[in-house]
Structures are given as structure tokens and as C-alpha cells.
Design goal:
By secondary structure, this protein is α+β, with helices and mostly antiparallel strands. It has a single domain, classed as ECO RV Endonuclease, Chain A. Helices cover 24% and strands 19% of the residues. The chain has four helices and nine strands. It has helices at 25-48, 54-57, 60-78, 186-194, and strands at residues 82-84, 94-96, 111-117, 125-126, 132-140, 155-164, 169-171, 182-184, 196-199. It has a six-stranded mixed beta sheet with strand order 1-2-3-5-6-9, sandwiched between helices. It has a three-stranded antiparallel beta sheet with strand order 4-8-7. α1 packs across α3. The chain starts with 24 loop residues before the first helix and ends in a 30-residue tail after the last strand. The relative contact order is 0.20.
Length: 229
């Protein structure tokens, strides 16, 4: 079975997005393509052995965590000033190089928290409400097409980034066995969506407030490095 590989749509980037810490649209392009390349390589191997795709065999929560970790590592690789937080489960996921000793901090303020979700619009649960730069990658997995061999590869359909405050969150009720979480409330989500980074071409763009003028986030003409995660 031939496994198709998704390619990032360069026309899907918002040229007017405001990005912190010297991030560039090309950093996001390369990071997403790394994930696409990884899934294509792994699924080709699994398919050759008659096994299910990684997308199909992995539980949703685990898949989301895997994608978040891969995006974090790739953004750190291409970013000018951000590196991975070396503290296990430290916050945020990406921190500014050299600000914290040994590039590790349990709870820092200078950096970007990375989230991934299948929830369109980016309303993802977090472990706590705090002031932070939060970046949300929204992806979709084709789990319905039959036969399974004809399913489309995983793709990112939206990416958002914004600086949010504690007041932008609502606290979620916690059950006896649950973990306390927080999610951006309506106004918080509106703030996040306003500064969108990427929208896939095959996703309806009717919710975008306006079409920006290409001035602030130009893409490089060619991809300088072709790597796989």
C-alpha cells in the first residue's frame, strides 16, 4: 500500500500574524512538515508489515501528546531564540535561550507553551490558568474513510498563538478522580483566534475576520533543511 505524505500549504499562513521571540512563519512551516514526514515514514513502515497506521492505533490523548512534543522539538530546532525546556514537565515548553540556568525551569514566564488538539478553534484544556504565550496546533485524523488503506494522512488545519492572562480562563469542575484543568473562556478563545498563524486551504475561512496584507510574516522561498523527526 502506498502511504501519502501531507505537504504544508504555504498559502495558508497569515502574513499579518504577530509572533513573539523572533519566531517566523517558516519556523512553523518546517515544524509541521517534520511531523508530516515522520508520520509518512512510520506509516509506510507499519503498512509494509500489514499493521495499522500510527494515527489509527494510537489513543487520542497519546497522539496529541506526541504531536505536541514533536512540534516543540522542531520549533526549537528552527527558532532563533527558543529552546526546549529541559525541566521535566516544566512550563512553558519552549523557553528563551539563556534566560534560565541550564535552560530549565519548573514554571517560567519567558517562552511559549505548545498545545495540540482536534478541537477546531483551539479551545484546549490546560493544567492551570496563567499568563503566558500559548500556541495551539489543531489537527485532524481521518478515522472514517473505508477501506482504511484509502485514509488521508493526518493534517494540521489551524494554528493559533496569543499572549493570554489568568483572567482569560475558566476553571473546569474536577471530579473525585479528575485533575484540575482550565480552558480559555469565550473572550479568551476570541483573543487566541484573532492572532491565527495558519489555516489549511481546504478548511473554510469564513470565520477569519479579514484578509490581511502580506507585510509582517514573509516565508522563505525555499526550505533550507529537509529533515525528519
Amino acid at each position: 500500500m502506498t502511504v501519502s505524505k501531507k505537504v504544508v500549504d504555504r498559502n495558508g499562513f497569515n502574513p499579518d500574524v504577530e509572533l513573539p521571540y523572533e519566531l517566523r512563519c517558516s519556523d512553523f512551516e518546517h515544524a509541521m512538515q517534520d511531523v508530516y514526514d515522520f508520520f509518512a515514514d512510520v506509516n509506510a513502515l507499519l503498512s509494509g508489515k500489514g499493521m495499522k497506521r500510527l494515527d489509527d492505533m494510537t489513543r487520542p490523548a497519546m497522539l496529541s501528546g506526541l504531536i505536541s512534543d514533536m512540534i516543540t522539538a522542531s520549533l526549537a530546532k528552527f527558532s532563533r531564540s527558543l529552546v526546549e525546556n529541559q525541566h521535566f514537565n516544566g512550563h512553558p515548553d519552549l523557553i528563551v535561550r539563556g534566560v534560565y540556568a541550564n535552560n530549565r525551569v519548573k514554571a517560567g514566564t519567558d517562552g511559549v507553551e505548545i498545545k495540540s488538539t482536534v478541537k477546531r478553534g483551539g479551545a484546549v484544556d490546560t493544567h492551570g490558568a496563567r499568563k503566558q504565550w500559548m500556541c495551539v496546533f489543531v489537527y485532524e485524523v481521518d478515522a472514517k474513510t473505508e477501506p482504511a488503506a484509502a485514509r488521508l494522512p493526518m493534517q494540521f488545519i489551524e494554528v493559533y498563538i496569543a499572549q493570554v492572562d489568568e483572567s482569560d480562563f475558566r476553571k473546569n469542575a474536577r471530579g473525585d478522580l479528575g485533575t484540575r484543568t482550565a480552558t480559555l473562556h469565550a473572550d479568551g478563545v476570541k483573543k487566541l483566534r484573532k492572532n491565527w498563524v495558519y489555516r489549511a486551504a481546504n478548511y473554510a475561512k469564513s470565520t477569519i475576520a479579514s484578509t490581511p496584507t502580506p507585510t509582517k510574516c514573509p516565508l522563505e522561498k525555499t526550505r533550507k533543511t529537509d529533515i525528519s523527526s
